[in-house]
Amino acid sequence: MKVLVLWEDGFPTLDSAPLSRRLLAAALRKEDARFASVQELADALTDRPDVLVTPYGSAFPKSVWEPFLRYLEAGGCWVNLGGAPLTRPVRWEGEGRHLGERRSPGAVRPPGRWHVEVPQTAYGKALRICHAFPVEIPAGCSLRSPRLDVDLEPGFTRCNARRAWALQVRLTDGRDFPDEAGSAGPREAVL
Question: How confident is the model at residue 62 (pLDDT cuts 50, 70, 90)?
Answer without folding.
Answer: very high
